[in-house]
Design goal:
By secondary structure, the chain is of the alpha+beta class. About 25% of the residues lie in helices and about 20% in strands. It has helices at about 10-15, 45-55, 70-85; strands spanning about 5, 20-30, 35-40, 60-65. A four-stranded antiparallel β-sheet has the order 1-4-2-3. β2 (about 20-30) and β3 (about 35-40) form a beta hairpin. The protein is globular and about 35 Å long. The N and C termini lie close together (about 10 Å). Residues about 110-125 have low confidence and may be disordered.
Length: about 120
Amino acid sequence: MEIHELNRKTVSSAIAQQTIGTYRLGDLAPDGGFRPRYIGRSTTCLQNRLLDHASTAKYSAFQYQKWDSVRETYEVECLWFHSMRDRLDNTRHPDAPRSLPYTCKYCARHSLRLVGTASPIGGGF
């Protein structure tokens, strides 16, 4: 995934309104890589959600992935959370989208083998 500077201009130009998806917030590493520190999703408008984060200036960069369904968005957020949870600022497990009976398929089978491995969805960390 491409790394973007987290500011209003970049978010507005990179992401169309009403796009749903997952995102990672973090900072650039000295080697130019990305260090994710926060995982999130939006099932209504990814642009608005990232604009909110940009206004806090807590993180300097972001990555995002668009998805076609709310279920896909939730499942990827859970995957990323389990894969990186020891490095994240947000330590609370993602809630299921409102009024939907989704459960995290990674909680039941989570093990140390997920930590630090490449994600089958969205590339490595």
